[in-house]
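Hmm, how's this folded?
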Amino acid sequence: MLKRFFNSPLGQRLLGALASSYVLAARYTSRWDYVHRERIATIQASQTGAILCFWHNRMLGMPT
């Protein structure tokens, strides 16, 4: 029964809303520590590409 509900459009919408709420709650309740902020600003201002890396347990924070 749950499998059928979560495959329905309403179930998908509910799961999406719950997931996005969790990510936002984690964003606003976490402490952010920026390392080498001036280097990041320089890379963002240039037109070259960049490779970003992060710890695998921080994946939910990547959209922010």
Q: What stands out?
A: The chain has a mean pLDDT of 84. The chain has three helices and no strands. Residues 9-29 form the longest helix (21 residues).
